[in-house]
Amino acid sequence: MAEQASASAGNVYRALIERIFLDRYSEGATSFEFDRDDIPDTAEALGLSRPKNVGDVIYSLRYRTAMPASILATQPDGMEWIIEGAGRAKYKFVLVPLNRVLPRADMAVIAVPDSTPEIIRAYALDDEQALLAIVRYNRLIDIFLGLTTYSLQNHLRTTVTGIGQIEIDELYLGLDRFGCHYAIPVQAKGGTDQISVVQTKQDIAWCKQRFPGVRPRAISAQFMDGEKVAMFELTVQGDQVVVVEEKHYILTSAERLDRNALTDYR
């Protein structure tokens, strides 16, 4: 029943975004804005129930649900429409080069002794919360970046000038052996959610705004098949989000560690 409800909500969200897009799109356009209030207004115009969580409409089309076919049909080869923040209660459709961050299939997997408390595994509320907890308790940020890091806050809701409200899944601060400081926003994706290039850009922009002079290092973590965790460091070059480094980890009990693999890691 929950899956059916989710699918139904997804269809409603797609219908709303489709109408908002088609009402404003003109051939050759590469960017145009709409307001948060346009979402409930469009629902009323279409005779649909007003979404209880307007923000979830945008979130779903960014991370979970494909754009409607009518929107995809307007995309030139190698380009895609994304939705970005454009200020307080404002969004914009932007046509950008096609950009997907997906785990590679040919990466070696690094075994890490599992330090996740069983009670956390038992009561994690969803994939994202479980992944953030696994990353935190197993110090995967430290291992991946080679820094000493500290979790400052999770689900940080804040604003970025020119973009509007954003939410950072978890924010770490890091320190290297020379005493340099780093701001490390972490994006966690479980289930069918995709790593978001939009969220990466927003996270980096906020770190530069909030911590001028401190280097931001944006991290994305994603569950893979076989209980593996893919870790990415991402950065922005031009308008593109690119992968700086990618590693895959699997948590295991100490007695199941492969001693030969430990030698290979060296």
Name the overall outline. globular
**What percentage of the residues does DSSP assign to strands (E)?**
25-35%
Low-confidence stretches: 1-7
Helix-residue proportion: 25-40%
In total, the number of domains comes to 2
Structural class: alpha/beta
How would you sum up this structure, described in words?
The chain contains nine helices and eleven strands. It is an alpha/beta fold and about 270 residues long. It has two domains: about 1-95; about 110-265. Strands 4, 5, 6, 7, 8, 9, 10 and 11 form an eight-stranded mixed sheet that branches. Strands 1-3-2 form a three-stranded antiparallel sheet. Helix 1 packs across helix 3. Residues about 1-5 have low confidence and may be disordered.
Outline the fold blueprint:
Blueprint: H1 2-24, E1 31-35, H2 38-45, H3 54-63, H4 69-72, E2 79-85, E3 90-97, E4 109-113, H5 118-123, H6 127-137, H7 140-145, E5 148-160, E6 164-175, E7 181-189, H8 197-210, E8 215-216, E9 218-223, E10 228-237, E11 240-252, H9 259-265
Short description:
This protein has 266 residues and is of the alpha/beta class. It has 2 domains: 96 residues; 157 residues. It contains 9 helices and 11 strands.
